[in-house]
Amino acid sequence: MKPYQIIYYRGFGSPRAVWLTGRVLRQNELVSPADQAPFWDNLSASVSRFLTSEVDGITVRIEAFGQVFRTVTNDEGYFDITIDPAIELPTGRAWFPVRYALEGVLQPEGYEGKSGSGQGREVVKDGQLMIAPAYSQFGVISDIDDTVLVTGATSLWQTLRLTFLENAFTRLPFAGVAAFYRALQGGAVTTLFNPIYFVSSSPWNLYDLLIDFFRIQGIPKGPILLRDLDINASMISKEGHHLHKLAMIRKVMDVNPDLRFILLGDSGQQDPEIYADIIRDNPGRIVVAYIRDVSREADRDEAVQHLIQTAANDNVPMLLVPNTVAAAEHAAVLGLIDPDTLPEIRADRKADQE
């Protein structure tokens, strides 16, 4: 029998409400990727991410903030719960520990964990959750595909090739992203901590790959919000993509009612449309939206320009930028990042391009 595995996704929230989610599977843990891994190893790991054995109807015990909470997995092994910390949180802290455990379940006979025999042991996973400190200047909500990570999201075959045949070491970031996001997290006053949230329509099955990719590239840590893998027409449609990202962005904003946000995306899919909706529905809460220009079609460029004007009518600048440096220079003018970080961002972009 394969071992039980708790996969936790970084939680997030505010002093009043914290959202936690994860999944329970029966499978061996995936090994960390290697820089020079052969084609077959990458393909094997990718297939393993999608051929999962879900555990439904199992109670997950969650320990956080000195309290215990419980929830039950659904028919695809997912669990989620919104909790109230119900305590006064320490000033200046952003990350807090959380422990997940399966109630009434022990690892099967013959299982050996990383630290030796795991047979008969309780199934436990330690994780972290993020709460924006009260002094945060703003929050950042960023798309992933073709905004942070080169995916070729406008080409199905390119996306499949990169997903299944590459790993976290060989996937490429957009040039300069890591340094720019570090600058945004630090803000114009480098003692600040501005939380960053990553939103994508990619499936949760790719979560570990993205965690490794962000770590390898030096991109600041933050919650990564993906979606359930449901192979049907609605999942791959523009409407399904639009509705999922809208829901995740609204969740982030709802649990941070006092925080204003910067939005980052690309022109290739629906980010300008989604961000225009968010701007319209949340007057005064969006500082600026940066859209990386990745489209090459005149009709798409015209549609994006129309959305930029729509945002301007709502008093929010939405900029179509050719690269990370252009967005960073504008952010420095607005007082969102320290101008002294611009040389590092330019150097980071040059290094990534090389």
Automatic annotation (TrEMBL):
It comes from the Bacteria. GO terms for molecular function: phosphatidate phosphatase activity. Residues 138-293 form the Phosphatidate phosphatase APP1 catalytic domain. This is DUF2183 domain-containing protein. It comes from Fibrella rubiginis. The lineage of its organism: Bacteria, Pseudomonadati, Bacteroidota, Cytophagia, Cytophagales.
